[in-house]
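Case 285 in the screening queue. Each case pairs one protein sequence with one candidate compound; here the compound is 2'-monophosphoadenosine-5'-diphosphate. For every case the pipeline is the same: read the inputs, emit a complex structure as tokens, and attach any notable structural observations.

Predict complex for case 285.
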Amino acid sequence: MSTNQKWLLGVLGDPIEHSCSPAMMQAAFASLHLSGRYDAYRVTSGQLGHAVRGLVALGFTGCNVTIPHKEAVCAYMDVVDETALRVGAVNTVVVREGKLYGYNTDGRGYVRSLCAEVDAPLHQRDVLILGAGGAAKGIVHAVVEQLSPRSLTIANRTQERAMVLAAQVPGVCHTLPWEAVQEAVSAYGLIINTTSIGMGESFAEQPCCLRHVRPGTIVSDIVYRPAVTPWLLEAERRGALIHGGIGMLVHQGALALQLWLEARGCTHTPPVATMRDAVLRAVTL
Ligand code: ATR
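Case 285 output:
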């Protein structure tokens, strides 16, 4: 497809009404002078296979996939790339010559955002990951591969899930009981909340108590609505460097857009700053 042909893309999920991805991608299209549409599609679990196969029939370039379909969608791919296979989840689909290729840009997007937004050395830190769900999986693998942590500890409310995830990176990952986090916080130089605590109705809740956080520790929250959570404000008050969730959303989107552009032989670079502005506007709406 050349750049002046119409691009059809979208995000599949359920619920999907509050997704910022359409605003972010439409802004990117406009900035790159590409003509196309990126819309949000509510797809139930029972219809996922039909929806994904329909991308080929309808001439889509690809799509993003979000909660709750990132794992289930793997079954409908013709090819799943190595990272997505390791994580067990696909967030980006590319259609090439009638075949569906699945990728996962979440973890790489997260680390890119951390590197771009935190003004401190990131390698060789003792890392604490809060949560062991879908989001944690991508982040754990990317952090281990790209930041060479001195240690990586996973704490999750349901400890068995933390153990299963830690076992995927043997020799590097440890687990910590959820109840022990508060006292252990001072041992870590990078603390990442991958749980949904602090988002939406749990706005007032905090992923963990930060009373013992060391000044200079990086505290990172993947929750992006609000852009800066009360937990991050508390961390900042205690002298930590803070990193919010908007960057992960933007960079996973930029990496997905890059895959679609490359698949169509385009040499454009995703306009990260424009995408970020669009997300910030959408989040504060
Ligand atoms: P996602 O794909 O967004 O990561 P998920 O797989 O449902 O969604 O994972 C949500 C994560 O947030 C899990 O680690 C979950 O802990 P459990 O495995 O014990 O369910 C965590 N989480 C959500 N609400 C929580 C709460 N109120 N307290 C502690 N952990 C919570």
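Case 285 observations:
- The two ends are 34 Å apart (CA to CA).
- The pocket of 2'-monophosphoadenosine-5'-diphosphate is lined by residues 67, 131-136, 156-158, 161, 195-197 (CB under 6 Å).
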